[in-house]
Amino acid sequence: MRDRPDGPTLAALARGAAARGEDRALIGRALAIAEREAAAGEKPLESCRAALVQLYGEAALLPLLRRFGDDISAGRFDAPGPAREAALRLLWAITRQKLSEANPDYLAAAEG
Amino acid sequence: MRAALARFLAEATGARSVAIEELRRLPNGAVTENWLLAAGFAGGMLGDAQRLVLRTNAATGLGIGLGRAEEFAVQRVVHGAGVAVPQPLLLGSSDVIIGKPFYLMRWLPGEAAGAAIVAGQFGGRRDRLLRRLAAELALLHAIRPPKTALSCLGTPPADPARHRLDQQERLLAEDPDPHPVAAWGIAWLRRHLPRPVNPVLCHGDFRTGNFLADTEGLVAILDWEFAGWSDPAEDLGWFCLGCWRFGAYGQEAGGIGSRDAFYRDYARASGRSVDPERVRWWEVMAALRWLVIALRQRDRCLMGGERSLDLALSGRRPAECELEILKLTGDG
């Protein structure tokens, strides 16, 4: 669900950039993402997986997300109705969670 | 590099000699590198002291967009058409001079940083800046194919929207990670394809952050590496995308003004009516295309070996695009 690079990778890259004296704003942004991600932990991934398990049955998050994307592409959620509404709710939940870690200011501005 | 460049400059301009006094990388540009080159020319077509910008490829590329020779050709054509761009001067298309292709243009004073422009430190009066940007876009969109000098851009697509959608879908499929929101956006774009229009020359990355402004107003439109033949609404949608508002989210036209004012200014300057639904389609496409570019930026760091935190952070930008896709398509 989370985009790459993950928090630990970003933190490592930020430490390298700090050692080279690079842009402090970028370093701060990377470290903040890593911190927010660490604070959120695995819980958002597990809730996303749980929502997809409801749809498809038990499996790991990555294959479930892939199947969800494939079904969207195949038009399974095109028709108005509960399935489409549920899919849309899940997409919003994923997006809000990702933004709350990657760029909470953007999320607040866009939904303000 | 300096000696080879000085030789090239002397030969290309007919100067007796060229002394490079300053050569330093400018801060802007992720896909390309821009270098300030200050040099003294003894005779030749430029003459005396000159401040130029050398534009060349970054260490790794996106695998999409124009090469420097094509970008130089576009910049020459738009400069000739009267669009505000730095005058392109010389093309070094061979790899032997600095190890990669480059071109030189006149350096212009000003600021390109989106946050500083949106904050009002540069660009002057907001309504005037927006009107000027719309007017420049209208001037650009008056350039239509066929254009021999732009044969490097290839055959104009008969259906620019379908062409762009197929291209982005193909590029997204190359990414190993699942992107369900992007899939949602693609499905919506397929269902709502606009009728084809005759393509015009589009900038392809027309947004706040890609133009130079001083305290009075607009100086020049920069960064032409994504130029091509397309639907003029593509540039309008790209400009209005939420990701390019630099903290002024409520100002939907590039963080500078209202969407309505921008559409009105553009319609007045171009003589074309603006169809908001068509622009909305291109805005969804803009979100999808920026998402794809961000993933490729990320890969330049994670897979291409380019040590850049900026590029790595691009990998976390798709969530902004996804939010825009959902906001723009949520009602069907």
Structure description:
- The complex is a heterodimer of chains A (112) and B (332).
- Chain A is mainly α and 112 residues long.
- Chain A is 77% helix and 0% strand.
- In chain A, helix 1 runs antiparallel to helix 2, helix 3 runs antiparallel to helix 5 (82-102) and helix 5 (82-102) crosses helix 6.
- The longest helix of chain A is centred in the last third of the chain and has 21 residues, at 82-102.
- Chain A is elongated, with a radius of gyration of 17 Å.
- Chain B has 332 residues and is of the alpha+beta class.
- Chain B has helices spanning 2-13, 68-80, 114-118, 126-141, 160-173, 180-191, 233-240, 259-270, 276-302, 309-314, 318-329; strands at 17-25, 32-42, 48-57, 88-92, 102-106, 200-202, 211-213, 218-221, 228-230.
- In chain B, the strands form three sheets. A five-stranded antiparallel β-sheet of chain B has the order 1-2-3-5-4, with helices on both faces. In chain B, strands 6-9 form a two-stranded antiparallel sheet. Chain B has a two-stranded antiparallel ribbon with strand order 7-8.
- In chain B, a hairpin with a 4-residue loop joins strand 7 (211-213) and strand 8 (218-221).
- In chain B, helix 6 (180-191) runs antiparallel to helix 9 and helix 6 runs parallel beside helix 11.
- The radius of gyration of chain B is 20 Å and the shape is globular.
- The N and C termini of chain B lie far apart (56 Å).
- The model of chain B has no long low-confidence stretch (mean pLDDT 95).
